[in-house]
TrEMBL record:
<dbReference type="Pfam" id="PF01182">
    <property type="entry name" value="Glucosamine_iso"/>
</dbReference>
<dbReference type="GO" id="GO:0004342">
    <property type="term" value="F:glucosamine-6-phosphate deaminase activity"/>
</dbReference>
<dbReference type="InterPro" id="IPR006148">
    <property type="entry name" value="Glc/Gal-6P_isomerase"/>
</dbReference>
<dbReference type="InterPro" id="IPR004547">
    <property type="entry name" value="Glucosamine6P_isomerase"/>
</dbReference>
<dbReference type="GO" id="GO:0005737">
    <property type="term" value="C:cytoplasm"/>
</dbReference>
<dbReference type="GO" id="GO:0005975">
    <property type="term" value="P:carbohydrate metabolic process"/>
</dbReference>
<dbReference type="GO" id="GO:0019262">
    <property type="term" value="P:N-acetylneuraminate catabolic process"/>
</dbReference>
<dbReference type="InterPro" id="IPR018321">
    <property type="entry name" value="Glucosamine6P_isomerase_CS"/>
</dbReference>
<keyword id="KW-0119">Carbohydrate metabolism</keyword>
<dbReference type="GO" id="GO:0006046">
    <property type="term" value="P:N-acetylglucosamine catabolic process"/>
</dbReference>
<feature type="active site" description="For ring-opening step">
    <location>
        <position position="135"/>
    </location>
</feature>
<dbReference type="GO" id="GO:0042802">
    <property type="term" value="F:identical protein binding"/>
</dbReference>
<feature type="active site" description="Proton acceptor; for ring-opening step">
    <location>
        <position position="130"/>
    </location>
</feature>
<dbReference type="GO" id="GO:0006043">
    <property type="term" value="P:glucosamine catabolic process"/>
</dbReference>
<comment type="similarity">
    <text>Belongs to the glucosamine/galactosamine-6-phosphate isomerase family. NagB subfamily.</text>
</comment>
<feature type="domain" description="Glucosamine/galactosamine-6-phosphate isomerase">
    <location>
        <begin position="27"/>
        <end position="218"/>
    </location>
</feature>
<protein>
    <recommendedName>
        <fullName>Glucosamine-6-phosphate deaminase</fullName>
        <ecNumber>3.5.99.6</ecNumber>
    </recommendedName>
</protein>
């Protein structure tokens, strides 16, 4: 695991962009993308650039269950706002959180990932060490699945909603086994709220209690952390 320390999220976005640029130049075609506040500066750098993504494929990590795509908290909406409207891709895949048959949707998404191996996966990290919506206790062997969100995650994400009651209680998430199949993983972490999770991810035991710790077993992980997030490393 390579760790790059940066001053702040702005510099982090630039460093992540440069790394992504190298991978694109080397032929990367399928990007695994994340939502949340963390990847925003990276997406801003992409939008500012003159890179063309029209032959690229994106596969997002997760989506809330039950939010229409025009709800501004859906991850579909987030991705269009922050990236896809400005940089059209050949194809954008996200789980459909409104699918009537969620089990079938989970299977469909697994097939999407199987058919489009991810070259570069962008990740944030939750305060409790989750990646995607793989909460503590999730099996490392799991692929796409329906998740009951942890209370900690609901609380953390409630800042984006009018009230905590509005935060969806479930999501569809790419699984840890799917994430681990990505060729390169770029994990970004900004702010002191991530310091404990990051320290455990890097130096703690590999345990399902801290989902991101599995990344110690991946051959090509680059962590970009600001001073605050890296303060306990
Ligand atoms: C969310 C997302 C994750 C994200 C994490 C951190 O719940 N499902 O993909 O990495 O929590 O969010 P943020 O970047 O806003 O801190």
């Amino acid at each position: 695991m390579k760790i790059i320390k940066v001053e702040d999220s702005l510099e982090g976005g630039k460093v992540a962009f440069d790394l992504l640029f190298e991978k694109l130049a080397a032929g990367a075609k399928t990007l695994g993308l994340a939502t949340g506040s963390t990847p925003i500066t990276l997406y801003q750098e992409i939008v500012k650039s003159d890179l063309d993504f029209s032959d690229m494929i994106s596969i997002n990590l997760d989506e809330y269950v039950g939010l229409p795509v025009d709800n501004d908290q859906s991850y579909d909406y987030f991705m269009r706002e922050h990236l896809f409207n400005a940089k059209p891709f050949n194809q954008n895949f996200l789980p459909n959180g409104l699918a009537e048959d969620l089990d079938a949707e989970v299977k469909r998404y697994d097939a999407v990932i199987e058919n489009h191996p991810i070259d570069v996966q962008v990740l944030g990290i939750g305060r409790n060490g989750h990646i995607g919506f793989n909460e503590p206790g999730t099996s490392f062997d799991i692929t796409t699945h329906l998740v009951d969100l942890a209370q900690d995650t609901i609380e953390a994400n409630s800042r984006f909603f009018d009230s905590i009651e509005d935060v969806p209680k479930q999501a569809i998430s790419m699984g840890i086994a799917s994430i681990m199949k990505s060729k390169t993983i770029l994990l970004l972490a900004f702010g002191e709220g991530k310091a404990d999770a990051l320290a455990q991810m890097v130096n703690g035991p590999v345990t399902e209690n801290l989902p991101a710790s599995i990344l110690q077993n991946h051959p090509d992980v680059i962590v970009i952390a600001d001073q605050a997030a890296a303060s306990k490393l």
